Amino acid sequence: MSSTSALRAAPWTLAAVIVVIALNLRGPIVAPAPVIGAIRSDLGISAATAGLVTTIPVLCFALATPLASWLIGRFSPERAVTASLVVVLLGTVIRSGGSAAALLIGTAVIGVGITIGNVVIPVVIRRDSSPARVGLVTGVYTSALNVGSMITSLGTAPLATVVGWPVAIALWGVIVLIALGAWSVFAGRMAWRSGATVTEAGRASVPKTGPIDQVLDADAIRRPTNDPNAAPVPRAVIVGLLLAFGGQAFAYYALTAWIPTLLHDRIGFNPASAGASSSVFQILAVVGALGVPALATRWRPRAIIALIAVLWVAMPLGLLLAPHLWLVWEILGGAAQGGGITVIFIVIVRLVSNDDQARRTSAVVQGGGYLIGAAGPLVMGGLHEASNAWTVPLLVVFAATILLGVAGTAASRSVR
Question: Do 195 and 208 meet the contact criterion of CB atoms below 8 Å apart?
Answer without folding.
Answer: yes
